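Re: that chain you flagged

S.,

Sorry for the slow reply, it's been a week of failed gels. I finally had a moment to sit down with the sequence you sent. For the record, here it is as I used it:
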Amino acid sequence: MKKKEIKKLTEKQVLENLDKLKKDLFNFRFQKVNGQVKSPAKINETKKNIARLKTLIEVKNA
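Prediction finished late last night. Pasting the structure tokens below so you have them in one place:
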């Protein structure tokens, strides 16, 4: 997700995306252990997107 895309999201959409990304990361970890990861870069990208969404939530709540 791009920074511009994240800023356009509503709070509900941010929370939904955050839950989805956490589930994806959980699944990526299992795939990594089993050697089934197709693109390891997706793991880092997912972590960064989670951090971006959490930062947005903190900024809006402050």
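What I noticed first: The two ends are 23 Å apart (CA to CA).

Talk soon,
D.
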